[in-house]
Fold this sequence. Notes:
- This protein is mostly beta strands.
- The protein contains one helix and eight strands; from the N terminus they run αββββββββ.
- The protein has one helix at residues 2-9; strands spanning 22-29, 46-51, 57-64, 71-78, 83-88, 103-107, 127-137, 179-190.
- The strands form two sheets. Strands 2-8-7-4-5 form a five-stranded mixed sheet, with no helix packed on it. Strands 1-3-6 form a three-stranded antiparallel sheet, with no helix packed on it.
- It is globular and about 55 Å long.
Amino acid sequence: VAARFHLHLHRKNPWKPMLGLVTMELYRLDATSWTRVSGNLLVDGRAQIVDDDKNSIYSVVVHNYSDYDLWPYLVSMDSGGYSISMVYHPEAALSGPPLRAHSHMVIGSGSLDSEALSFALADGASTGATFLKLFVSSVYTPMTFIEQGTPSTLARNPPLTEKTKPKGAGAGTESVELWDSVVSCVTIVRRSPS
Length: 194
């Protein structure tokens, strides 16, 4: 379980075609109105959150500054228990990639297919860490295999491969297949007793 966790945590495209072109932001939301009550909590891919026992909720904003329409897949990876859960997985039936070129999308907007994120410490723990790992691909790829606890799906859904080195944005009319990933670390700390 731990080895599989680290395999997916460190999985990356060595060519880094989306480096600086796809980014994530993390915002705390008001649980009643679903409006932002914080600035971007991620600084250089890291955030520190206080576990305040208020069931705080968060949203992730994904920016695509590239010239490609992309399929985004966001997973939450709990370093304490090595669990991996899918936060956002687009439907194959969509009319096209949901993360369009030069646009952004909100994961955790309150709609049925975009539930908010929450972070909490395990009982008795004073700190914890969760990784948010975003995979993006120019082609739809089933990614539910990445979740821990469902090894039977591994054989049916192959992972993203590194078979195609991306070509430039103006590379003619041929289809370019590319993928990349972005990872952020969210550290959760327990509020100090007053």
